[in-house]
Here is the input.
Amino acid sequence: MRFHSPAIQYFHAVRRTGSIRAAARVLNVASSAVSRQILKLEQEVGSPLFERNARGLTLTTVGEMLARHVMNVLQDLDRFRSDVASLSGAWSGTVSIACIESLTESVLPDLIASHRGRARRVSFTTEVKGSSDVLEALSRGEADIGIAMALRHPPDLRQVALKRFRLGAVVAREHPLARRKTVTLEQCLAFPVINALPELSIYHLLQPLIAQLSETPEPAIQANSIDLMRELAARGVGVAFQTQLGIGRLSRDSQLVFLPLDNAGSPVWSDLGIYVRAERTLPAYTESFLQELVRELGERERRENAAYPPTS
Amino acid sequence: MRFHSPAIQYFHAVRRTGSIRAAARVLNVASSAVSRQILKLEQEVGSPLFERNARGLTLTTVGEMLARHVMNVLQDLDRFRSDVASLSGAWSGTVSIACIESLTESVLPDLIASHRGRARRVSFTTEVKGSSDVLEALSRGEADIGIAMALRHPPDLRQVALKRFRLGAVVAREHPLARRKTVTLEQCLAFPVINALPELSIYHLLQPLIAQLSETPEPAIQANSIDLMRELAARGVGVAFQTQLGIGRLSRDSQLVFLPLDNAGSPVWSDLGIYVRAERTLPAYTESFLQELVRELGERERRENAAYPPTS
DNA sequence: ACATGTTGCTGCCGTTTCGGCAACGGCTAT
DNA sequence: ATAGCCGTTGCCGAAACGGCAGCAACATGT
Here is the structure.
């Protein structure tokens, strides 16, 4: 099913690989063929699409515009294909997800497993990144669905849903704080804490609050892995901070305790956004998974709110 | 600038004309070329795209899916072109509008004239239709912007704005009703009225209200042209019904009077919707005009509300 | 400074695709 | 029955495409 001129596909490959010869390798064609198609495109557009650096190609402004068009075309082609396929009964395709680490512990694996149980022919690609990288990958068309902290998102993305979860302290069961219902930041800072590095968005949530306190915090551990921080906390090394999403199962059958943070009487919210490219209709199988994702996160938000009512 | 496979464009032309030979004439190519491209497409998709009736071709279900994809591609190509053009300063392109008749008297001509004064290279195509035909033309990609009565719109359209205007009676200055501030439907029906035919949406607005009244209305004139109805009213033939949008200028310097309808103490609203295709980013020049259109209609809605406050 | 590897680009040439012409069978309306 | 329009199909020249080998320009490593 190849109704689009090869120039489109070649351009797309060159943009992704950043090199004509590399694109040619991916496409299984001679590099000369790719080079010529790009030159032809540039002639028809009337303006160069790439800047030729000594080491590969970079998009020009016009090139970026064309890249957007090509992405729209190819993604809509995917959707068309899936529409035709679903007409003859069988769903098949790949859902590509970019998300932050908090989802990997239970939300995403649960959802994917349950979805695959019902739709065997749908496969998944997931990539864990930082929040801004998630949005960037989405913009570049490298993923279909993005889950990230709700920062300001670029205009070519659409925020499908926004769910807020309470940020909390995570400590081992034997920790002195573990008996409490909620904790304040000050109480936590009296103990060794496991801090997020600036590449994690938790850092940007907590840093302003910590800065307000005049205390000098205990000597702390810093890390950039939610997983690592959680495991450290479980071993009693200190107090970690994250949303309950990241410790769904572990908090039940093991030694972790989640304590919602209380900042001057009000909770500390961590806003999670679900994003897709704005100029695009998703294939049916992707749309279906997306809706399950939104439903599931909404459910967790609701459950959590019931467990830790904000007005406590 | 033709980077898409000819099959795409041929398919598009065949869909619009409903015939391979007619498409070939439009495209200035031999009909055999068109036929072959369609056959090739069908082979690649793996399923027929058209039903060959004795008199031309009709889309199959798969064909309609491909049609949607092709429309998305071609329209996004337009947008890309306009983006590139606007980069070198000069806007140029064609804004295609489908709207109902009420707009033709002053709103649309005013807007187009003023817009052309600022952007000479932008040309316009406008087609006047009934409300449901407007939405249909929009769905089929035959127009960029649609203005129609706000009915239920199909999911592939997006309602950009919704403005409500008061339905009113339009009478000649010498008409007995002309001295009033507002009128009720009953008062109007005491005189000869000029009714809309069912093809106009005004009919569907008024008919339920008229049916509630037990009176037998005066022998009436029926017409399907807003313009004709207005001119008839100006000649004192009877009472016409429409929104004030249709008589903007005429009510000022001529013999027409607009009287907001009062139905059991509350106004009768006529909802005007502005629509675009949902899966699409508009070219810059179209987007610009669209925003002016929304602003202008909002302005008229505001002005009218000030002139005839709903609570009177 | 030199060799080496990589980059994009360009003649040359065989292959594939495309489009125009003419003709065919099927169908409708007169 | 006849004329007209429909979509399709051989045939053939023209245009586009892709592969191969070689080019100059540049970066890197010794």
Summary: Chain B has eleven helices and 13 strands.
